[in-house]
Design brief:
3 helices; 6-stranded antiparallel beta barrel; mainly beta; 2 domains; single chain; Elongation Factor Tu (Ef-tu), domain 3; 199 residues; 12% helix; 42% strand
């Protein structure tokens, strides 16, 4: 589990096809300011909101394997580019964002990225099947960043990005047409399931 509070922006420095015949790739990621002293093989790190398992660690870099399934339902992992990083939560950690599983639900498209003073108004169109889980003033994860929705209209929702979020994550690089990883609120999914089971 994660909180959606990005700890550092890393950089994918190498993409290596694995020789297992399953189209899996191995990413080598420069962790940037993310401390790796307490990271061991088998630990989870969210990369642009995708929970991945550390399979190698050398100096300030770590490696993860990405399956074809993960590549098919996410964006931002198949090219050497910056990525938002967060280590998995420990039970004693503060939950500064919201409960995030690191299991991307779908890919959204940026509709607007407008300056509002020092802030940015980010509007995203979610896949239709996810729109029912997104509520005004609710939580949503965009490329691993926990955000609060301001408006929701159909499958489109907007969030406000403050200067700190723009500086501490990759979201400041977005533009209309950009595609982003989305994870909806975990509690909304469970509420739907419980209500459906009670009918």
């Amino acid at each position: 589990m994660f909180s959606g509070i990005v700890a550092a922006v890393g950089q994918i420095t190498a993409i290596t096809p694995r020789g297992d015949g399953a189209a899996t790739i191995r990413l080598t990621i420069d962790a940037g300011r993310l401390g790796l002293d307490d990271v061991e093989l088998g630990d989870s790190i969210a990369c642009n909101g995708v929970c991945l398992t550390v399979v190698d660690r050398r100096g300030d870099s770590f490696s993860v394997d990405v399956s074809p399934e993960s590549l098919a339902c996410t964006v931002g992992l198949a090219e050497c580019a910056p990525v938002n990083l967060e280590k998995a939560l420990r039970l004693a950690d503060r939950l500064g964002g919201h409960l995030v599983s690191g299991h991307v639900d779908g890919v959204g498209e940026v509709l607007r990225f407008d300056a509002v003073g020092d802030n940015r108004l980010l509007e995203i169109r979610a896949p239709d099947e996810l729109s029912r889980y997104i509520a005004r003033k609710g939580s949503v994860t965009v490329d691993g960043v926990s955000l609060t929705t301001n408006t929701v209209e159909g499958a489109a929702f907007s969030v406000n990005l403050i200067p700190h979020t723009l500086a501490a994550t990759t979201l400041g690089r977005l533009a209309p047409g950009s595609r982003v990883n989305l994870e909806v609120d975990l509690i909304a999914r469970y509420c739907e399931r419980l209500l459906a089971a009670g009918r």
